[in-house]
């Protein structure tokens, strides 16, 4: 029953983000963020992580995920999810770590 509660929580978060304009779905391929429904891609410098939400399974520690709210420099907003911890997709993690690091560097220069 816990899994359904966790899913409901993620669904509620996705619905809220959708209502806030985060309507696109992303994936990472060849080091770029890609829209699922088009050929449009973005580099690390084109992307900002607006928010993120972690979901942890109560009965299985491997049942963890993270949902990122992403905004691109052209105004495109959407989400990407990944497993959290040892089950994470390393390509998604590497891309998002680069985005975070670039954001930290920019914050220090302003």
Describe the overall structure:
This protein has 110 residues and is of the alpha+beta class. It has one domain. It has two helices and six strands, in the order αββββββα. A six-stranded mixed beta sheet has the order 3-2-1-6-5-4, with helices on both faces. A hairpin with a 2-residue loop joins strand 1 and strand 2. The longest helix is centred in the C-terminal third of the chain and has 20 residues. The chain is globular. The N terminus is likely disordered. This is Phosphoribosylpyrophosphate synthetase.
Radius of gyration: 14 Å
Q: Give the low-pLDDT segments.
A: 1-7
Mean pLDDT, all residues: 86
Number of domains: 1
The SSE order reads HEEEEEEH
Q: What does the secondary structure layout of this molecule look like, with pairings?
A:
Layout: H1 2-19, E1 24-29, E2 32-35, E3 41-42, E4 47-56, E5 64-72, E6 77-83, H2 90-109
Parallel strand pairs: 1-6
Antiparallel strand pairs: 1-2, 2-3, 4-5, 5-6
Structural descriptors:
110 residues, alpha+beta, six-stranded mixed sheet, disordered N terminus, Phosphoribosylpyrophosphate synthetase
What's the short version?
The chain has 110 residues and is of the alpha+beta class. It has 2 helices and 6 strands. A 6-stranded mixed sheet has the order 3-2-1-6-5-4, with helices on both faces.
